[in-house]
Amino acid sequence: MERSLRKVLTALLVTALLLPHPAAAQSRLEAEDYAATFQYVMEFVEQNSLTPDLDQQKLFEAAMEGMFQILDPYSEFFTREEAEQFDNIVSRKYVGIGVEMRETPLGIAVTKVFRGSPAEDQGVMAGDMVLSVDGKQVADLGVGDVAALVLGEEGTRVGIVFQRGLELLEKSFSRRLVSIPTVEEIPLAGMDPVRAQKTMRIVLSGFAEDTEEEFKTLLETAGTRGVTHLVLDLRDNSGGYVDAAVAIGQMLVPAGPLVYFENKEGRRKVYGSTLERAPFRMTVLVNGHSASATEFLAAAIQDAGAGVLVGETTYGKGVAQYLFGIEEEYKLKLTMEEFFSRNGNKINGVGVVPDHVVEVPDLLSSDRRLYPGDVRPEVLELKKVLAYLGYFQGARDNSYDTLAVEGVMAFQRDAGLHVYGTCDFTTQKRLNQALADRLSKEDKPLEKALEVLWNRP
After folding, report:
1. d(Cα 20, Cα 36) in Å, to the nearest integer?
2. Are residues 166 and 199 in the same domain?
3. What digits encode the pLDDT tens for the residues 147-176?
4. Which of helix, strand or coil describes residue 299?
5. Can you tell me whether residue 220 is helix, strand or coil?
6. pTM score > 0.85 for this model?
């Protein structure tokens, strides 16, 4: 039996070695040989694989997706449908439910709910975690894949399960066309009336085709009203079109470079401003979700001394992608340049550090109790929440140390819970309730931005 099996295996091996190959004699193929080999492999697989419903289109698209998986995380291969979805997202017009999502260490999180959207109608909140879409679990999916599940034809329905703290929320939405404004003035409440009249807060949520004109119109309104102080809110702005971000910079940043782009050969391209002076005293709000073009705009304002940054270190996406069409069926989004700040500082993988750090934690969403002595990423999130609520002043790390235990016990005591230092599910739920209540009543980064704006020399 063993001898027969050996003969069969040997025959299979010999058969495999004798298969015709367009470039079998070469150890390293030339470019045209790779193309011929690729075509040969596709045909061979299509003709011989037992996998049902294979054709060359499916094999080609699978091969392209595999190729792009070894590139950087921002380069992508798009089919026509995927390209349309991407274009809609960048242009801020799409059929969906009206939320912005981000990948976090704990999963896909909702970071913004747009006004007048199906999501707002259903009570979705920033901080909600997406668990499943139409019954499909999304734990192993990227944010682009999750967005593709959420988007669809107008009038069709989509069911989504969210997690808010420890609570599961099942929602059903009717998809509709959502047009997302990228420039909004948000009124400032509770300020001294004289200062309020001279201050404007502009929320810039993205850089789309209409952003430049919308921003220009709002600045003209500011001039008409005699505004002298500006809070530019770039929190959760994930970027967009470079030209739009540059145009905004040219309205705010004094003469000089705005950003440097550099390709793999080291060739540099510079975008600059010719503005004589900054039109306002300015503070800029950023957080860990401020990314890409947002980062070079914030850095230009900071480097030029045109404004002060407040909030959290930005995301650190300092690379630019270009779109290329292949016939009418496909598009490539390829990272081809890295960009650097006005002063030449690296942004990619580093981010832009604000002048005044004010951190705002996310809601806890651990699926386990946290015990003294634990070393887990969830402990860091716990420490951030405790610190924000005034119960912790120690090192921000993954270690459930003595100070963290004392902070949990102090909170448990104040909340009327069993005081024993373990962060159980009840404690996590009460911490989330306390945090959500605090965040609904205050915006510490904005408060700091206004304080700096009116008190800086």
Report:
1. 12
2. no
3. 999 999 999 999 999 999 889 999 999 999
4. helix
5. helix
6. no
